[in-house]
Amino acid sequence: MSLVRARRGCLAAALLGTALCVLAGCASTVRESPPQTAPLDVATLNLWHDKQDWPHRQDLIVSELRRLAPDVIVLQEVLQDAALPNQAQVLASRLGYEYRFFSADAPTQARRYGNAILVRGTIDASREAKLAPLDDYRTAGWVRATVRGRPLNVYATHLHHTPPGGAIRAQQIAGLLDLVDATAGDVPSVIGGDFNTRSDTPELTALVARFADAYADAHSSEDSNTPAHATLNPRLSHPPVRIDHVFAQLGVFRVVDARIFLDKADATGAWPSDHYGVWARVAWNEGVRR
């Protein structure tokens, strides 16, 4: 065989091998890495019930929540009355979310006040618990949801409001954690709410032993409890304190980012609420099988 014919034979064999590789796939072909699970976005907001111009404030809130499109929204100071449709139901309907409302008020009452959880997914189960002392009208709510194809526990609460009421808040945290223990199972959990205290106070010690303060983790290079990070609106005569929090289960989630939203008045001078919202993005820890 001549040298030219030999080279032509080698070239033909190489081309045939390449064609077969394209058709059948080759072991040496670089495979794409499996897609990573998308992060989970959680927002919490105290609605300020129906204060001031609720229809206008509602539009401001809906506009920003549409822009953020969180997977989970936790609401406090949610109100319904004879002439006021349940605020969580209205927001859920406008945003296209499923929701559950939790209240210490009897279901037969026209006027009910409480908390709510909205989910961009499906809600598979729910429960609520009244928190002691019962005359404080505080509750904790739970939903088991399917979000981005994965099961998730979401908890909502709103704790006692007076500055010297740390012992009451500690008692309410114990009640919240009792609900977590009764419902969480082996499914990851996030908690949102108006805790009426900073996350570094003694009354939240039992909570932060199990859950990360997402906002503080995202701003770990600075003191996140200074007035610059307040969630109470100081322009509406509130002290500048960060009391609204998103907590993510330790060991299951990694905090990616967190920030405050709805912290500006609109062109008319109207505020969306007397609280600012807190938005947090957490990543699933893929090393933990849930």
User: What is the CATH topology classification name of the largest domain?
Assistant: Deoxyribonuclease I, Chain A
The proportion of residues in beta strands is 25-35%
Major sheet details? 6 strands, mixed
- By DSSP (H or I, 4+ residues per run), the number of helices equals 6
The shape is globular
Unreliably modeled segments: 1-35
The total count of strands amounts to 12
Helix content: 25-40%
What structural class should be given to the helix and strand makeup? alpha+beta
Tell me the span between the first and last alpha carbons: 65 Å
- Radius of gyration (Å): 25 Å
Q: Mean pLDDT, nearest integer?
A: 90
What is the annotated CATH architecture of the largest domain?
A: 4-Layer Sandwich
- The CATH C-level name of the largest domain is Alpha Beta
Helix-strand pattern, N to C? Answer: HEHEHEEEEEHEHEHEEE
How many domains? 2
CATH homologous superfamily identity of the largest domain: Endonuclease/exonuclease/phosphatase
Strands side by side in the biggest sheet: 3-4-2-1-12-11
